[in-house]
Amino acid sequence: xxxxxxxxxxxxxxxxxxxxxxxxxxxxxxxxxxxxxxxxxxxxxxxxxxxxxxxxxxxxxxxxxxxxxxxxxxxxxxxxxxxxxxxxxxxxxxxxxxxxxxxxxxxxxxxxxxxxxxxxxxxxxxxxxxxxxxxxxxxxxxxxxxxxxxxxxxxxxxxxxxxxxxxxxxxxxxxxxxxxxxxxxxxxxxxxxxxxxxxxxxxxxxxxxxxxxxxxxxxxxxxxxxxxxxxxxxxxxxxxxxxxxxxxxxxxxxxxxxxxxxxxxxxxxxxxxxxxxxxxx
Length: 281
Hints:
Layout: H1 5-15, E1 21-26, H2 32-44, E2 47-52, H3 72-81, E3 86-88, H4 92-95, H5 114-117, H6 121-136, E4 140-144, H7 148-160, E5 166-170, H8 190-195, H9 198-211, H10 217-229, E6 234-242, E7 258-266, E8 269-277
């Protein structure tokens, strides 16, 4: 276990440059979705390192930083079972020295959807990911498609700043009833957990409508919203049909396809989900 930047730098120096290095950054509270990323990293790299760091920069003042789950011993067991070669587990003080005042702002992809609902969130994401890339120096980094906007922001940052890291998206892992795996699912009350699969049901209904020939984004989004309207436990934040790369608004779902994206509160828990659609569907 590498508990600070100095230990990580020593490990990275000893590793040298001959082996292809895969990296899975996480905030812990690991589940099967994270494990699938580690398995994917193992397929694409010779050595795999993961990080666990609950990044305070990406939490707003009224969000769940203090109660975010931190089951570190269980996480370490999952990492060992997945065959991860090293774990970087830094402290906040080590990652952000006193007086730190430099941040990474992506000024387009980060603005809509969750960016509009959580101001400053993606600045925190981009800043910590770039710092981790600089420290770990991976050849390939794995991120989950469940956080589609996060993936898009990181891909844009890597492109714009010439960061020499290949970004790979791993597919969403779901429960049997369709609920996307998330570390925040543990917060759901039994009643909210019963309602949560409606998020995926709304995405699936819109995908069906698209396959049946509907390409108007607002009509498609309206179908998704109507699926959720029957649940009193779901407080919808957004239901949108967006360009899959820029996340900007589109006039119709064309050859590039689209990203179906939804965010909602169930009780005090905020959940997100998404589903890409395209001509191949």
